[in-house]
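Following up on my earlier message about (2R,3R)-2,3,4-trihydroxybutanoic acid. Here are the inputs again, as you asked, copied directly from the submission form:
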Amino acid sequence: MRTTRLFVALTALIGAFALPSAPATAQTNMKINISIAQNSHQGVAIDTFAREVEKRTNGRYKIQTFYSGSLGGERESVEAVQLGTQDLTFTSTGPVPNFVPEVAILDIPFLFRDYNHARSTLDGPIGQDLLGKFSSKGIVALAWGENGFRHMTNSKRAVNAPDDVKGLKMRTMENPIHIQAYKAFGIIPTPMAFPEVFTALQQGTVDGQENPLSVITAAKFEQVQKHLSLTGHVYSPALLLMNKAAWDKLFADDKKAFLEAAKEAVKANRARVDDDEKKAVADLRSKGMNVVENVDKAKFQATLGPTYADFGKKFGQDNIDKIRNYK
Ligand code: EAX
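Thanks, got it. Here's what our run produced:
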């Protein structure tokens, strides 16, 4: 009797695993992280992703969320996802050209006119084509997210035009395109992982940094920076990345669930950026920052003549123009 029951149970179990769709039992845990605080446009992205994956896979996948660089900075995290020591990360594209060089074209200063231009480009064929470049590097790019238009802050002086940044030592992302362009602005770039930036600003290792309003507020940089200038000198995309081997193991239904969850994450992420953009300047002013809103952007752009020519050679002027003119 006992043996029969056991046999039936075992057969059922084996049968369950032989089904083409996902088994109802085992739970798989995965990790995802960001380099900034949970209360941010990136925090809502990974919180939404975790919640939606869990819901859409009936709890078979549980996504653990980590914030504030507790699992490492962005470069380390992309590396961990590539190696498979971490399943997922949400990252700005800052360090990504070190892994997928084609993506660097998006880091060209003054490439996008506004948020609509950037979002529609990334959601359209150009962006979707770039997502396809990741799989040969052991990574699956689930979706484009958003970090935002970057603005400069520093502790020394108000910045209205390139003359004002001359000689300022500024922390930059570990991004070759930014570093090249910012040198042309007159800045002395100091590449550094994000988790080190607050202390570097506090201790005066660097004079300034540049980041979207969403990051500046989430990181409380107003505590260590006096001046903010709305330079909007470059758009900073973000990506939701997954280890390819982990992705390949998913059943077809679960792949769909992960992609849908990624879409929801991006929606929440962009909505929070929109909200931050409305509130941040007043908020930072009330906390004592001096904010320059009308920056001479044309002058900043004018410093990039030879740099743009170089990017034209590097990426193909056609490809750059395709993005510039995308509607
Ligand atoms: O992704 O490193 C940076 O400045 C990024 O913008 C920040 O970590 C948010």
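One observation from looking it over: The two ends are 72 Å apart (CA to CA). Hope that helps, and feel free to reply on this thread.
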